[in-house]
Specification:
Layout (H helix, E strand, L loop, with lengths): L4 E3 L4 H11 L3 E4 L5 H7 L6 E4 L10 E4 L2 E5 L4 H6 L1 H6 L1 H8 L4 H6 L2 H6 L8 H6 L3 E6 L2 E6 L4 E3 L2 E2 L6 E8 L5 E8 L10 E8 L4 E6 L6 E5 L11 H11 L14 H26 L1
The chain binds flavin-adenine dinucleotide.
The site of flavin-adenine dinucleotide has 29 residues, from strand 2, helix 2, helix 6, helix 7 and strand 10.
Protein backbone atom coordinates (compact mmCIF):
# COMPACT_ATOMS: atom_id res chain seq x y z
CA UNK A 1 0.00 0.00 0.00
CA UNK A 2 1.34 3.42 -0.91
CA UNK A 3 1.89 5.74 2.10
CA UNK A 4 -0.69 8.50 2.49
CA UNK A 5 -1.47 11.27 4.92
CA UNK A 6 -4.44 10.42 7.17
CA UNK A 7 -6.60 13.42 8.13
CA UNK A 8 -9.43 13.45 10.64
CA UNK A 9 -11.15 16.87 10.43
CA UNK A 10 -13.88 17.79 12.92
CA UNK A 11 -15.59 20.42 10.74
CA UNK A 12 -17.20 20.15 7.30
CA UNK A 13 -15.31 23.25 6.13
CA UNK A 14 -11.95 21.62 6.94
CA UNK A 15 -12.88 18.40 5.13
CA UNK A 16 -14.05 20.39 2.09
CA UNK A 17 -10.83 22.44 2.11
CA UNK A 18 -8.71 19.26 2.10
CA UNK A 19 -10.75 17.67 -0.68
CA UNK A 20 -10.67 20.88 -2.74
CA UNK A 21 -6.92 21.31 -2.28
CA UNK A 22 -5.98 17.74 -3.21
CA UNK A 23 -8.71 16.97 -5.77
CA UNK A 24 -8.38 13.44 -7.19
CA UNK A 25 -5.40 12.83 -4.89
CA UNK A 26 -7.72 12.87 -1.85
CA UNK A 27 -10.25 10.22 -0.84
CA UNK A 28 -12.97 10.33 1.79
CA UNK A 29 -13.09 7.33 4.10
CA UNK A 30 -16.21 6.38 6.06
CA UNK A 31 -16.52 2.67 6.96
CA UNK A 32 -13.62 1.79 4.65
CA UNK A 33 -15.19 -1.48 3.47
CA UNK A 34 -14.71 -0.48 -0.16
CA UNK A 35 -11.84 1.97 0.14
CA UNK A 36 -9.46 -0.15 2.25
CA UNK A 37 -9.64 -2.97 -0.30
CA UNK A 38 -8.81 -0.57 -3.11
CA UNK A 39 -5.95 1.00 -1.14
CA UNK A 40 -4.55 -2.47 -0.50
CA UNK A 41 -4.78 -3.66 -4.10
CA UNK A 42 -3.38 -0.34 -5.35
CA UNK A 43 -6.33 0.46 -7.62
CA UNK A 44 -6.57 3.82 -5.85
CA UNK A 45 -3.43 5.61 -4.69
CA UNK A 46 -4.43 8.82 -2.89
CA UNK A 47 -1.90 11.03 -1.14
CA UNK A 48 -4.53 12.09 1.44
CA UNK A 49 -7.30 10.05 3.08
CA UNK A 50 -9.95 12.17 4.82
CA UNK A 51 -11.79 10.35 7.62
CA UNK A 52 -15.19 12.04 8.04
CA UNK A 53 -16.40 10.13 11.10
CA UNK A 54 -15.46 12.89 13.56
CA UNK A 55 -17.53 15.56 11.84
CA UNK A 56 -20.61 16.16 14.04
CA UNK A 57 -22.92 17.08 11.11
CA UNK A 58 -22.22 13.68 9.50
CA UNK A 59 -23.07 11.77 12.69
CA UNK A 60 -24.70 8.33 12.51
CA UNK A 61 -28.27 9.45 13.12
CA UNK A 62 -31.66 9.07 11.46
CA UNK A 63 -33.87 12.11 12.06
CA UNK A 64 -37.21 13.46 10.89
CA UNK A 65 -36.75 17.04 9.67
CA UNK A 66 -39.35 19.12 7.75
CA UNK A 67 -41.14 16.20 6.10
CA UNK A 68 -37.96 14.25 5.33
CA UNK A 69 -36.15 11.36 6.93
CA UNK A 70 -32.51 12.46 7.12
CA UNK A 71 -29.86 9.73 7.32
CA UNK A 72 -26.45 11.05 8.40
CA UNK A 73 -23.51 10.19 6.13
CA UNK A 74 -21.87 7.92 8.71
CA UNK A 75 -25.01 5.88 9.46
CA UNK A 76 -24.25 2.19 8.94
CA UNK A 77 -26.35 -0.56 7.33
CA UNK A 78 -27.08 -2.28 10.66
CA UNK A 79 -28.81 0.85 11.98
CA UNK A 80 -30.72 1.41 8.73
CA UNK A 81 -31.99 -2.19 8.67
CA UNK A 82 -33.13 -1.89 12.31
CA UNK A 83 -34.83 1.52 12.16
CA UNK A 84 -38.59 1.13 12.65
CA UNK A 85 -39.46 4.16 10.48
CA UNK A 86 -37.40 2.80 7.58
CA UNK A 87 -38.77 -0.72 7.99
CA UNK A 88 -42.34 0.58 7.91
CA UNK A 89 -42.15 3.37 5.36
CA UNK A 90 -39.08 2.49 3.25
CA UNK A 91 -39.19 -1.29 3.52
CA UNK A 92 -37.10 -2.00 0.42
CA UNK A 93 -34.24 0.09 1.83
CA UNK A 94 -34.34 -1.79 5.14
CA UNK A 95 -34.32 -5.08 3.21
CA UNK A 96 -31.41 -3.99 1.03
CA UNK A 97 -29.34 -2.76 3.99
CA UNK A 98 -29.97 -6.08 5.76
CA UNK A 99 -28.31 -8.13 2.97
CA UNK A 100 -25.16 -6.07 2.44
CA UNK A 101 -22.10 -8.26 3.12
CA UNK A 102 -22.01 -9.82 6.59
CA UNK A 103 -22.76 -8.63 10.13
CA UNK A 104 -19.24 -7.24 10.41
CA UNK A 105 -19.50 -5.41 7.07
CA UNK A 106 -22.94 -4.00 7.93
CA UNK A 107 -21.59 -2.65 11.22
CA UNK A 108 -19.01 -0.58 9.27
CA UNK A 109 -20.55 0.04 5.85
CA UNK A 110 -22.35 3.38 5.47
CA UNK A 111 -25.25 4.19 3.18
CA UNK A 112 -23.31 7.22 1.86
CA UNK A 113 -20.28 5.02 1.09
CA UNK A 114 -22.48 2.55 -0.79
CA UNK A 115 -23.75 5.39 -3.01
CA UNK A 116 -20.45 7.25 -3.43
CA UNK A 117 -18.61 4.07 -4.36
CA UNK A 118 -21.03 4.00 -7.33
CA UNK A 119 -20.87 0.28 -7.93
CA UNK A 120 -23.60 -0.79 -10.38
CA UNK A 121 -24.23 -3.65 -7.90
CA UNK A 122 -24.76 -1.36 -4.85
CA UNK A 123 -27.69 -2.96 -3.05
CA UNK A 124 -29.18 0.19 -1.55
CA UNK A 125 -29.17 2.17 -4.82
CA UNK A 126 -32.36 0.68 -6.36
CA UNK A 127 -34.50 1.40 -3.30
CA UNK A 128 -33.16 4.95 -2.99
CA UNK A 129 -34.02 5.50 -6.67
CA UNK A 130 -37.56 4.15 -6.13
CA UNK A 131 -38.13 6.51 -3.16
CA UNK A 132 -36.63 9.46 -5.10
CA UNK A 133 -34.11 10.09 -2.35
CA UNK A 134 -31.65 12.98 -2.49
CA UNK A 135 -28.09 13.27 -1.29
CA UNK A 136 -27.10 16.43 0.57
CA UNK A 137 -23.66 17.60 -0.46
CA UNK A 138 -21.24 20.13 1.05
CA UNK A 139 -18.60 21.70 -1.15
CA UNK A 140 -16.53 24.81 -1.82
CA UNK A 141 -19.66 26.61 -3.13
CA UNK A 142 -21.85 25.64 -0.15
CA UNK A 143 -24.54 23.01 0.14
CA UNK A 144 -26.58 21.46 -2.67
CA UNK A 145 -28.97 18.53 -3.11
CA UNK A 146 -28.60 15.89 -5.80
CA UNK A 147 -31.42 13.47 -6.65
CA UNK A 148 -29.92 9.98 -6.36
CA UNK A 149 -30.83 9.41 -10.02
CA UNK A 150 -28.52 12.30 -10.96
CA UNK A 151 -25.62 11.04 -8.81
CA UNK A 152 -24.55 7.97 -10.77
CA UNK A 153 -22.58 8.20 -14.00
CA UNK A 154 -20.94 4.78 -14.36
CA UNK A 155 -19.06 2.31 -12.20
CA UNK A 156 -16.98 4.26 -9.68
CA UNK A 157 -17.94 7.65 -11.12
CA UNK A 158 -20.46 10.11 -9.63
CA UNK A 159 -21.43 13.70 -10.35
CA UNK A 160 -19.77 14.88 -7.11
CA UNK A 161 -17.45 17.78 -7.91
CA UNK A 162 -13.96 18.52 -6.67
CA UNK A 163 -14.05 19.33 -2.94
CA UNK A 164 -17.54 17.87 -2.36
CA UNK A 165 -18.64 15.32 0.19
CA UNK A 166 -22.01 13.82 1.06
CA UNK A 167 -23.32 14.92 4.45
CA UNK A 168 -26.68 13.09 4.46
CA UNK A 169 -29.23 11.14 2.45
CA UNK A 170 -32.83 12.35 2.57
CA UNK A 171 -36.05 10.40 2.00
CA UNK A 172 -39.35 12.24 1.45
CA UNK A 173 -41.99 11.56 4.13
CA UNK A 174 -44.63 13.82 2.60
CA UNK A 175 -45.49 11.58 -0.40
CA UNK A 176 -48.25 8.97 -0.60
CA UNK A 177 -46.99 5.77 1.04
CA UNK A 178 -45.66 3.01 -1.21
CA UNK A 179 -45.68 -0.73 -0.86
CA UNK A 180 -42.12 -1.69 -1.70
CA UNK A 181 -39.73 -4.61 -1.83
CA UNK A 182 -36.07 -5.37 -2.56
CA UNK A 183 -34.87 -8.53 -4.29
CA UNK A 184 -31.45 -9.70 -5.35
CA UNK A 185 -29.66 -12.66 -6.84
CA UNK A 186 -26.16 -13.71 -5.85
CA UNK A 187 -24.00 -16.58 -7.13
CA UNK A 188 -24.00 -18.28 -3.76
CA UNK A 189 -25.34 -17.92 -0.27
CA UNK A 190 -23.15 -15.92 2.08
CA UNK A 191 -21.65 -12.63 1.12
CA UNK A 192 -21.30 -11.88 -2.53
CA UNK A 193 -22.11 -8.89 -4.69
CA UNK A 194 -25.41 -9.11 -6.54
CA UNK A 195 -25.73 -10.50 -10.06
CA UNK A 196 -29.02 -8.58 -10.11
CA UNK A 197 -30.30 -6.18 -7.43
CA UNK A 198 -33.72 -4.64 -7.76
CA UNK A 199 -36.39 -2.65 -5.89
CA UNK A 200 -40.03 -2.01 -6.71
CA UNK A 201 -42.45 0.52 -5.23
CA UNK A 202 -46.19 0.85 -5.88
CA UNK A 203 -48.39 3.66 -4.57
CA UNK A 204 -52.17 3.93 -4.19
CA UNK A 205 -52.52 5.94 -7.43
CA UNK A 206 -51.15 2.89 -9.32
CA UNK A 207 -47.73 4.34 -10.15
CA UNK A 208 -45.09 1.58 -10.21
CA UNK A 209 -41.42 2.40 -9.86
CA UNK A 210 -38.80 -0.20 -10.64
CA UNK A 211 -35.07 0.29 -10.20
CA UNK A 212 -32.39 -2.24 -11.00
CA UNK A 213 -28.64 -2.60 -10.75
CA UNK A 214 -25.78 -4.92 -11.71
CA UNK A 215 -27.20 -5.14 -15.23
CA UNK A 216 -25.43 -2.15 -16.76
CA UNK A 217 -22.90 0.56 -15.99
CA UNK A 218 -25.17 2.25 -13.42
CA UNK A 219 -28.42 1.51 -11.55
CA UNK A 220 -31.53 2.56 -13.51
CA UNK A 221 -35.01 3.80 -12.50
CA UNK A 222 -38.08 3.23 -14.69
CA UNK A 223 -41.69 4.19 -13.99
CA UNK A 224 -45.09 2.94 -15.17
CA UNK A 225 -47.82 5.50 -14.49
CA UNK A 226 -50.57 3.65 -16.41
CA UNK A 227 -51.73 1.72 -13.34
CA UNK A 228 -51.79 -1.52 -15.35
CA UNK A 229 -48.72 -3.09 -13.78
CA UNK A 230 -49.97 -2.29 -10.28
CA UNK A 231 -53.31 -4.00 -10.90
CA UNK A 232 -53.19 -7.83 -10.70
CA UNK A 233 -56.73 -7.96 -12.19
CA UNK A 234 -55.49 -6.63 -15.56
CA UNK A 235 -54.64 -9.17 -18.31
CA UNK A 236 -51.34 -10.93 -17.71
CA UNK A 237 -50.15 -10.22 -21.27
CA UNK A 238 -50.69 -6.45 -20.88
CA UNK A 239 -48.78 -6.39 -17.62
CA UNK A 240 -45.96 -8.54 -19.06
CA UNK A 241 -45.61 -6.21 -22.05
CA UNK A 242 -45.21 -3.22 -19.73
CA UNK A 243 -42.66 -4.98 -17.55
CA UNK A 244 -40.66 -5.98 -20.65
CA UNK A 245 -40.56 -2.35 -21.78
CA UNK A 246 -39.34 -1.30 -18.35
CA UNK A 247 -36.42 -3.74 -18.52
CA UNK A 248 -35.34 -2.82 -22.03
CA UNK A 249 -32.44 -0.58 -20.95
CA UNK A 250 -30.70 -3.33 -18.99
CA UNK A 251 -27.33 -3.98 -20.64
CA UNK A 252 -25.35 -6.54 -18.64
CA UNK A 253 -21.67 -6.83 -19.47
CA UNK A 254 -20.36 -9.82 -21.44
CA UNK A 255 -17.15 -9.63 -19.46
CA UNK A 256 -18.46 -10.01 -15.91
CA UNK A 257 -17.35 -13.13 -14.06
CA UNK A 258 -20.47 -13.09 -11.88
CA UNK A 259 -23.15 -14.15 -14.38
CA UNK A 260 -23.82 -14.23 -18.11
CA UNK A 261 -25.97 -11.48 -19.67
CA UNK A 262 -28.71 -14.02 -20.49
CA UNK A 263 -28.87 -15.24 -16.90
CA UNK A 264 -28.97 -11.71 -15.53
CA UNK A 265 -31.76 -10.69 -17.90
CA UNK A 266 -33.77 -13.81 -17.02
CA UNK A 267 -33.31 -13.15 -13.29
CA UNK A 268 -34.17 -9.48 -13.72
CA UNK A 269 -37.58 -10.52 -15.05
CA UNK A 270 -38.15 -13.09 -12.29
CA UNK A 271 -37.10 -10.70 -9.51
CA UNK A 272 -39.11 -7.90 -11.08
CA UNK A 273 -42.32 -9.95 -10.87
CA UNK A 274 -41.52 -11.09 -7.33
CA UNK A 275 -40.79 -7.60 -6.06
CA UNK A 276 -43.90 -6.23 -7.79
CA UNK A 277 -46.15 -8.88 -6.20
CA UNK A 278 -44.68 -8.21 -2.75
CA UNK A 279 -44.97 -4.44 -3.17
CA UNK A 280 -48.65 -4.74 -4.20
CA UNK A 281 -49.36 -7.02 -1.23
CA UNK A 282 -47.64 -4.64 1.18
CA UNK A 283 -49.52 -1.63 -0.15
CA UNK A 284 -52.83 -3.49 0.28
CA UNK A 285 -51.89 -4.41 3.86
CA UNK A 286 -51.08 -0.75 4.56
CA UNK A 287 -54.44 0.55 3.24
C1 LIG B 1 -16.80 -8.61 2.11
C2 LIG B 1 -17.61 -7.49 1.51
C3 LIG B 1 -18.92 -7.72 1.15
C4 LIG B 1 -19.70 -6.69 0.60
N1 LIG B 1 -20.99 -6.96 0.26
C5 LIG B 1 -21.74 -6.00 -0.30
C6 LIG B 1 -23.10 -6.26 -0.67
O1 LIG B 1 -23.63 -7.36 -0.46
N2 LIG B 1 -23.81 -5.25 -1.24
C7 LIG B 1 -23.28 -4.01 -1.47
O2 LIG B 1 -23.96 -3.14 -1.99
N3 LIG B 1 -21.98 -3.73 -1.12
C8 LIG B 1 -21.22 -4.68 -0.54
N4 LIG B 1 -19.91 -4.41 -0.20
C9 LIG B 1 -19.35 -3.09 -0.49
C10 LIG B 1 -19.35 -2.09 0.69
O3 LIG B 1 -19.47 -2.74 1.94
C11 LIG B 1 -20.48 -1.03 0.57
O4 LIG B 1 -20.40 -0.39 -0.67
C12 LIG B 1 -20.43 -0.02 1.71
O5 LIG B 1 -21.72 0.52 1.89
C13 LIG B 1 -19.43 1.11 1.53
O6 LIG B 1 -19.53 1.98 2.64
P1 LIG B 1 -18.24 2.42 3.48
O7 LIG B 1 -18.71 3.34 4.55
O8 LIG B 1 -17.46 1.24 3.92
O9 LIG B 1 -17.47 3.23 2.35
P2 LIG B 1 -15.91 3.55 2.19
O10 LIG B 1 -15.15 2.33 1.82
O11 LIG B 1 -15.42 4.34 3.35
O12 LIG B 1 -16.01 4.53 0.92
C14 LIG B 1 -16.50 4.04 -0.32
C15 LIG B 1 -16.36 5.15 -1.37
O13 LIG B 1 -17.25 6.21 -1.09
C16 LIG B 1 -16.53 7.42 -0.84
N5 LIG B 1 -17.23 8.06 0.29
C17 LIG B 1 -17.58 7.49 1.47
N6 LIG B 1 -18.28 8.37 2.22
C18 LIG B 1 -18.37 9.51 1.49
C19 LIG B 1 -18.98 10.79 1.73
N7 LIG B 1 -19.63 11.05 2.86
N8 LIG B 1 -18.86 11.72 0.78
C20 LIG B 1 -18.21 11.46 -0.39
N9 LIG B 1 -17.61 10.29 -0.66
C21 LIG B 1 -17.69 9.33 0.26
C22 LIG B 1 -15.11 7.01 -0.54
O14 LIG B 1 -14.17 8.00 -0.88
C23 LIG B 1 -14.97 5.77 -1.41
O15 LIG B 1 -14.68 6.13 -2.74
C24 LIG B 1 -19.12 -5.41 0.38
C25 LIG B 1 -17.78 -5.19 0.76
C26 LIG B 1 -17.04 -6.21 1.30
C27 LIG B 1 -15.62 -5.92 1.70
Amino acid sequence: MRAFSYQRPTAIADAVALLAEHGPDARVIAGGTDLIIRLRDGSVRPSVVVDVKRIPELDPAIREVDGRLVIGATTVMTDIAADERIRRRFTALAEAAAVVGSVQIRNRATLAGNLCNASPAADTAPSLLVYEAEVVVAGPDGMRRIPVDALFVRSGVTTLRRGELVTAIELPLDRPPMGSAHQRRTRRRGHDLASVTLACGVDASGVTRLAYGSVGPRPLLVTDASGVLADPARPEADRAAILERMLVDASPSERSMRASPDYRLAMLRVLGWRALATAIRRLAAEE
